[in-house]
Amino acid sequence: MSLAKKIVIVGGGITGLSAAFYLKREMEEKQIPYELTVIEATDRLGGKIRTLHKEGYTIERGADSFLGRKLPAIRLAEALDLSDQLVRNSTGQAYIHLHNQLHKMPQGAYMGVPTQLAPLLHTDLYSVKGKLRAGLDYVLPKGKAVPDQSLGGFLRRRLGDELVENVMEPLLSGIYSADVDKMSLMATFPNFYELEQEHRSLIKGLRKTLPQQNRSTGKKTGQFFAYQGGFESMIDALANELGEEQIIRNQAVKKIEKSTNKYDVHLQNGDVYDADAVIMTTPHRTFPKLFESFDLFDPLKEIPVSSAANIAFAFDESALEDPLDGTGFVVSRNSDFRITACTWVHKKWPHTTPKGKILLRAFVGKPNDQEVVDLPDEELTALVRHDLQRIMKIVGEPEFTVITRWKEQMPQYTVGHQDRIARVRGQMEKQLPGIFLAGSSFGGVGVPDCIGQSEELVADVLDYFKENEPVASDAKSYSNPQS
Predict the structure, then answer these.
(1) What's the pTM?
(2) Kindly report the CA angle at 420 between 416 and 421, in degrees rounded to 5?
(3) What is the pLDDT of residues 79-105, one digit of tens each?
């Protein structure tokens, strides 16, 4: 009788693959026999991480970078021996489009929150009234201690509507493709709440806690990292570490049934895998139908989803009358534009674009403009070109365009999100021990957040195995690990 621990990971995105990688490493280091299987419903791995190499361009269709201070992504790169492939972004001026013109992003701001007085006073992004209102943050009392609240409501109370709507909302909502007034403060930016509670003033708290380089007005080092060969190089490295024998593609999981102390994972083709532990990294909407005999996942139905799309344009540099000076812009929601942002990729990430060429990446899918994602390709391209043309002097046609749509794949962390997830996990421990969940629906939508969740899962799975190890188990059997 085999004593190997059988682990099934459902979902071959970054969360599932990094969880498999770390689990494999830990099981082998601890000499615990195991059988590990990653099941992916599609023919490709990586989920929303997707890189296109075309005519010398490197085009990210999903995530294009991560913050250097998000250490889980750095640790994974080091573990995969990919550190030498990491590239820092070129620093440069970022802009906000408001009142039909581009305005420089105020220096010293953190996610739009000012930390320096001079840039706040001199920017033309806000009226005098708006600047005075933002300054009230210095004297307003801290809010009452509450379990959660709207991110937008919190920021409006501290800094006023103008600063939130003109600067912060397009920055913060862009990360989550969400409505800032519905977003959960504690699930997205709990540090804002902690700063207010500890320092009373959000601005004062940031000034005291931010590294000095983040507030410097001099030349700064890029705060973001990308991969020289594109983000998919990380996915390829993870797949190579696991080996194709541990990965099943093009097979969706049909249902998961509890069987004594194990689980039966049924695939659409009729195959059944038995598992001591199952790690679920699929979108939250899949859980109720996969565990159809359990109602504990009902709170997940309260998590809404949104859609987004991005369009990459490749141009010869002669197509723009005026050279672009900066890295891109976000669009204030107080405008009639349908694009939400545009990255001047060739400026921010020079390694992605051939010499003499220009690469732009524009985004659509505001919370109140979801239908734009479903427009036909030609109509969507024309709409985005029209908006870009109003901001930039484009005189030539693109060499090609690449449209990427993420239809109902952006989970929304609305107020009470953490409580909902905690309730589900609490019931899972009682009713479905050995089932673990992680991914962008639960503990962070960014690549580092998903990797961080996978790191935490490893300890949880190993603790579960230890707690449920038969008393009479033969310790000697763990000296010959098998994969």
Answers:
(1) 0.91
(2) 120
(3) 999 999 999 988 778 999 998 889 998
